[in-house]
Structure formats: structure tokens, C-alpha cells
């Protein structure tokens, strides 16, 4: 008699699984902010060179996402929000994620250097290093200030876009960096407030885990108080103008109102309405950043008609 | 006799191969487009910078 043994065929990754390693949603934010940085810079770039620049900035961001998924596979497996990512789900092997991340990092940096300039390529290389090594490997598991310092990685793309066009740094590109840098902590801490046990289960020292929710609520308010004047002051830089000022005043008024509401609430209140205010603040913070950069872009688009800027 | 049954694994492999093919084709197009853009940006002097003096004039 012949025994037939049916063994489970190992899961085989499709193209989409490898693409998911690049964190497409994060990439979309990178593409948008880098594009704004490039378009508002006071220099004209050939459309093909601009397209190539944005493409390889996005690829570099995706590569750092793949390296992050390789390194964080153990904690991604524990957290509900991330357990279906390709590596913890067992669809893509960790070594494949590492290989893809390293290869794409190299391609992105070299191609950006060849297409645009060495300064932009160097800035992209530093961004990948900062996200993969400084944030993922070092800060994320050691300090509750992880997202404060790590937020710099997400803040570099508009600076790189600006560098693609001008080959350097300016007050305006530093402002765009600062805007994302200061926006990151309240954005992520509002998420941590309603993700409940995810971070503590994974042993990630988010502020909610190490210092409690009361302190986190205070930090959301403190960073909102620092962010609001900075965002409004951007209206008076070379990339700001009356339209940006109106948008920034409205959005920052809303931001402060949301942050004060979060600060005033206690856990019992938040539990009672299932973190409605915190979830609303998190959603709003996404529009907040998008609309600020949209207003910066609108100012640049209006300039040829004598309407943008002061 | 050939085995004709198609497993889901084969579909995934096909998808992966097609995806990689399209990506490589797109990469070639980008490099080609970039080359055209870079060359078109060079002035006559830049384009013939490698040639000995006088060659362009003749």
C-alpha cells in the first residue's frame, strides 16, 4: 500500500507582497511632500529629471520601509496592527526583505545622484540610514522619545525635493523639515492612545507604556502648542503667503482645540466613547499635514499670476 | 503524460515574474528618458566637449 502524505506547501509570495514591504502608504506621503519641496524651490528642473528624482526618493523611502520590516518582524508579529505584514505573516522570508531593502537603497541613492546631484543623493542615503538604523534598530526599542527623534526620517523628503532643484538647503526647506518633525509626535501619540495594548504587548517603550496615558495627553498638547506657532510662522517665509496664512490659522486653531480636548479627557471618558476624540484627532492630523503642503504648493502655483506670496 | 493542474502557487509565480518584467521595462524607460533629458540639456559645446578643438567648427 502506498501512503500519500499531503504536506502543506509553503506560502509563496506574490509581487504585491514584495511591494507591500515598501510601505506604499508611507511612500505616498513621501512622494507628495518631496514633490512640493521640488516644485516650490526657486529653480526650474527638467520634467523628466524631476520625475526621476521623485521616483528614486520614493524608492529610497520604500527601501527603508523594507529594512524596517526585516528588523521589526518580531514585534510586528505581536501587534494587531502589523501582524499581517508580509514578513510576520510568513509570506516573505526575513532575508528577502533585507536583500530587497539593501538593493533598493543602493539603486535609489546611486540613481538619484546620477539623475540630480550628489547633495540630494547624500541626503537620501542619510534618511535611509536614519530610519533603518537610528530609528528602527536603536531608538524604537530603547526610549519613549523614539518617535520624536525618529520623526526626522519622515521630515527629510521635502528637503531632498528642494535639494534636487537647488542642490542645497535653505530656510524654506528647513521650515518644511521642521513642520513634519514637530507634527510627528502628536500624530503618533494620538494613535498610541487608542491602540491600547499593542505597544505594551510588543515591549515597545511608547510614551503611553513608559509614562502612562495622562502624561501622553499632556505631551500631545505641548507639541501642538509648539507646532502651531511654527506652522503659522511659515507664512512669512519665501514659500508662504496670504493663502497659506489663512489655511494655517484655521488648521492650527483646529489642532489646538483637538489637543486641548485630548488633554482634558481621562481614560474613563475616552473608554466610554471608544476614543472618539483621539481617533478624530489622528485622522485630522493627516489632513493637517496634507493641507499645509497643499497650501505651500498653491502659493507657488499662484505666483506666476502675481497672486502667490507677499 | 504532462501534469496540467495549475496550483495557486503557479499563478503567484506568474504574477511575480510579470511584475518584475514590467518593473525592469519601466526602469529601462526611465534611464532612457533621463539620458535624453540630460543630453538635450547640454549645449553644443557641452555635447562636443570631448572632441579636439576645431572639430565642431569644421
UniProtKB/TrEMBL annotation, chain A:
> Could you tell me the keywords of this UniProt record?
Cell membrane, Heme biosynthesis, Membrane, Transferase, Transmembrane, Transmembrane helix
Q: What class of enzyme is it?
A: transferase
Question: What GO terms describe the biological role, i.e. biological process, of this protein?
Answer: heme O biosynthetic process
Does this UniProt record's set of keywords contain Transmembrane helix? yes
So which domain of life are we looking at? Bacteria
Family matches, as PROSITE patterns: UBIA
Main subcellular localisation: membrane
Reaction(s) catalysed (UniProt annotation): heme b + (2E,6E)-farnesyl diphosphate + H2O = Fe(II)-heme o + diphosphate
Question: Its quaternary structure?
Answer: Interacts with CtaA.
Family to which this protein belongs: Belongs to the UbiA prenyltransferase family. Protoheme IX farnesyltransferase subfamily.
Q: What else is known?
A: Carbon 2 of the heme B porphyrin ring is defined according to the Fischer nomenclature.
What does the record give as the function of this protein?
Converts heme B (protoheme IX) to heme O by substitution of the vinyl group on carbon 2 of heme B porphyrin ring with a hydroxyethyl farnesyl side group.
- The name on file for this protein is Protoheme IX farnesyltransferase
Q: Which organism is it from?
A: Cereibacter azotoformans
From TrEMBL, chain B:
Q: Which residues cross the membrane?
A: 18-37
- What does the UniProt keyword field contain? Membrane, Transmembrane, Transmembrane helix
- Look up keyword Membrane and say if it applies: yes
The name this protein carries in UniProt is Cytochrome C oxidase assembly protein
Q: State the organism of origin.
A: Cereibacter azotoformans
Amino acid at each position: 500500500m502506498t501512503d500519500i502524505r499531503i504536506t502543506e506547501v509553503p506560502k509563496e509570495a506574490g509581487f504585491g507582497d514584495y511591494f507591500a514591504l515598501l510601505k506604499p502608504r508611507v511612500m505616498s506621503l513621501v512622494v507628495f511632500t518631496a514633490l512640493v519641496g521640488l516644485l516650490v524651490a526657486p529653480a526650474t528642473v527638467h520634467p523628466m529629471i524631476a520625475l526621476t528624482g521623485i521616483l528614486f526618493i520614493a524608492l529610497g523611502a520604500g527601501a527603508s520601509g523594507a529594512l524596517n520590516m526585516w528588523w521589526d518582524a518580531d514585534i510586528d508579529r505581536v501587534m494587531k496592527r502589523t501582524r499581517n505584514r508580509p514578513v510576520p505573516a510568513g509570506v516573505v522570508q526575513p532575508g528577502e526583505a533585507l536583500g530587497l531593502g539593501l538593493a533598493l537603497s543602493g539603486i535609489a541613492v546611486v540613481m538619484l545622484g546620477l539623475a540630480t546631484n550628489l547633495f540630494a543623493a547624500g541626503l537620501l542615503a542619510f534618511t535611509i540610514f536614519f530610519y533603518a538604523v537610528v530609528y528602527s534598530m536603536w531608538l524604537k526599542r530603547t526610549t519613549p522619545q523614539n518617535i520624536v527623534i525618529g520623526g526626522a526620517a519622515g521630515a527629510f523628503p521635502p528637503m531632498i525635493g528642494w535639494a534636487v532643484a537647488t542642490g542645497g538647503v535653505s530656510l524654506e526647506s528647513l521650515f518644511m523639515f521642521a513642520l513634519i518633525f514637530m507634527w510627528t509626535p502628536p500624530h503618533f501619540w494620538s494613535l498610541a492612545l487608542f491602540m491600547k495594548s499593542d505597544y505594551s504587548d510588543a515591549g515597545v517603550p511608547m510614551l503611553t507604556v513608559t509614562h502612562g496615558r495622562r502624561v501622553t495627553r499632556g505631551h500631545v498638547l505641548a507639541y501642538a502648542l509648539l507646532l502651531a506657532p511654527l506652522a503659522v510662522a511659515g507664512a512669512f517665509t519665501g514659500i508662504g503667503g496670504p493663502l497659506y496664512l489663512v489655511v494655517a490659522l484655521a488648521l492650527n486653531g483646529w489642532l489646538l482645540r483637538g489637543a486641548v480636548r485630548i488633554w482634558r479627557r481621562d481614560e474613563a471618558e475616552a473608554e466610554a466613547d471608544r476614543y472618539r476624540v483621539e481617533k478624530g484627532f489622528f485622522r485630522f492630523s493627516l489632513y493637517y499635514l496634507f493641507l499645509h503642503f497643499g497650501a505651500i504648493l498653491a502659493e507657488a502655483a499662484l505666483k506666476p499670476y502675481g497672486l502667490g506670496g507677499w | 503524460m504532462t501534469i496540467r493542474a495549475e496550483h495557486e502557487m503557479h499563478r503567484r509565480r506568474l504574477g511575480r515574474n510579470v511584475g518584475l518584467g514590467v518593473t525592469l521595462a519601466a526602469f529601462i524607460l526611465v534611464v532612457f528618458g533621463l539620458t535624453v533629458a540630460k543630453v538635450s540639456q547640454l549645449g553644443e559645446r557641452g555635447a562636443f566637449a570631448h572632441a579636439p578643438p576645431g572639430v565642431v567648427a569644421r
